[in-house]
Amino acid sequence: MEQESPVNTAIVPWRERATYAILFFLPIAGVSARHWFSTSFLLFVLLALPELWRRPWNLDRRERVLVAILALYFVVFVISALANGWTYDQTHYGGRVLRFLVAIPIYLLLRQLPNAALWLARGCVVGGFVLLGQALFDVYVLHLARAQGIYSPNLLGPVAAFECAFLLVLWQIDRAWRPVMAAAMVACISALALSTSRGGYVGFIGMISVWAAMRFKGWRVAGAFLGLVVLLFVAYGTSSHVRDGVDSAVRQLDEPLPSDIGSDGEALPSVPARLEMWRVSILIFRDHPLLGVGGGNYNKAARVYVEEGRAHPEVIRHSHPHSAYFETLVSMGVFGFAVFLAMLLFPIYVFARGYRSAPETALFGLLHVTGFALFSITDASTILKGNYITVWLIFLLTFFGAHIRATVGHNP
């Protein structure tokens, strides 16, 4: 993978080394040092700005499509916000969505670096141990109920799942470091367990399933899935955090539906609350199908249904519907939702189609998009929070650029 360099590069050595350094350190302390991800993103922007004036870009057709999707996501957000009357909320959210547009010059930089994906994945080796240290500190020193890092269990858990999945791919590339990588993977899994992030658990299972399906053939696939099942049972049986998280979700699924509870203002458990927010999101979408209600306006729009007695008051105790899919549907309507799906499905298509030509870069990308897509089912932070957006974009652009380099001439 390191030797393939079909993209011509004129990056000066110090910029290349600086970019590799930021990529390496990106996964290490993002959940332990506040603004680590955002600061890294800003540094990428500063390093990448000269690429806007460098001509020609010589973008592959696949690259042009990805760049267009990123730009269109920002454009649809702006159009939706203007159509609904631009307010402070739109400015607040718009600053984060702007990252999708600013990511374009970052991609122009990353695509020229032959070892970008490797340095990012190598950072996950150190990152695994830092994640475990943070999780142990939270639970056994601070005596928190869940490992949450500087932000939230819903960031720490998914980041741990991501890093473990990427280490599985790196395992096939950097064979000399396998003992260290094995320990780092155990550290990531332990940190994920201590986070009690149910979304993290689902995303981890999904990524490992994709890895097994792509990596093995015949009876080995069955063996890999059997190993995954055994791992899940062991985790459930030995970790009280995993067991409590799973049992809590199962109990809440047995709770009465919000329509049966009534609208007396009593708070709903997390699972029924999400179901009610998703139901209300569909109502909002039906009334605002094309461009939605504008970013940051979910709470305001949902309040109408609460006042009419058509929704439980729980839905307006939250600023978003706790799902990136429903958030996009509500805030940007069918056009924004279509662009969001394209941002997921097009990279999957590119990575899957080029798997035979470049299995390592394809697998990096497939695991990343799979995890993000699954995390986004029960969490809107994936597209609303700057730190999560940074994780999504930088890993995606790094792996996409590496895959294009490895498949130029094989996958037109």
Describe the structure.
With 412 residues, this protein is mainly alpha-helical. The chain contains 17 helices and no strands. Helix 12 packs across helix 14 (324-353). The protein is globular, with a radius of gyration of 21 Å. Residues 1-6 have low confidence and may be disordered.
Counting helices, strands and paired strands, the structural category is mainly alpha
Name the overall outline: globular
Oligomeric organization of the protein chains = single chain
* Biggest sheet character: none
**Number of helical stretches of at least 4 residues:** 17
SSE order: HHHHHHHHHHHHHHHHH
The tally of beta strands, per DSSP, is 0
Q: Evaluate the radius of gyration.
A: 21 Å
Proportion of β residues? under 5%
Question: How widely separated are the two ends?
Answer: 19 Å
Helix content: over 70%
Mean pLDDT score: 87
- Regions with pLDDT < 50 over 5+ consecutive residues? 1-6
Features:
412 residues; mainly alpha; globular; disordered N terminus
Q: What is this structure's SSE topology?
A:
Layout: H1 13-25, H2 36-48, H3 61-83, H4 88-110, H5 116-141, H6 153-170, H7 178-195, H8 198-215, H9 219-238, H10 240-253, H11 258-261, H12 270-287, H13 298-307, H14 324-353, H15 359-375, H16 381-384, H17 386-407
Structure, briefly:
By secondary structure, the chain is mainly alpha-helical. It contains 17 helices and no strands. Residues 1-6 have low confidence and may be disordered.
